[in-house]
Amino acid sequence: MTRRRFAALVAALSLLLAGCSPKYNWRDYASPDAPYRVMFPAKPATFTRTIDLDGMQVAMTMTAAEVDGATFAVGAAEAPDAARAQAALEAMQLALVRNIGATITSQKATTDTDRATRDVDASGTRNGETMHLVGHFESRGKRFYQVIAIGKKDALPAEQVEQFITSFKLP
Predict the structure, then answer these.
(1) What's the pLDDT tens digit per position in 98-119?
(2) Entry pTM
(3) Please, are residues 74 and 38 in contact by the beta-carbon 8 Å criterion?
(4) Which of 45, 126, 133, 136 could form a disulfide with 147 if both were Cys (CB 3.0 to 4.6 A apart)?
(5) How far is the CA of 22 from the CAs of 13, 42, 46, 67, in angstroms?
């Protein structure tokens, strides 16, 4: 191969590789506000706002990333006590399910003295589009979390949702 052909080949490969970018660019994220770690499929953004959960006003910090119209998000907040943190799980789940007019296709809940979890899979519509929601809600002591993937059904590949949800870890 001549030097000129080799240079042309290298240039063509460089252009080809520059045009390729992975749709899911997984990265480890450790929250500076709450004790959790999770893998996001893209660079996340964070904001805090006050929300009402059945009369309990809390400042919830949301960290989220979007890929092709699908949102992957973790919300974290603190309740006045563990019992109210556990009650917040159902309130968050109901609000999200109502938001997309969803029907729950599967759900599971566990409760312990200082810990509770809820897992939900739901389908609904928003603005005439079919939506899918997969959520994990968890409380530990006074802290509570929502870990959700939501978007159009075809924008939420099961393996990507599973990777996100199962990557959520508390100490």
Answers:
(1) 988 999 999 999 998 889 999 9
(2) 0.85
(3) yes
(4) 136
(5) 17, 10, 23, 11
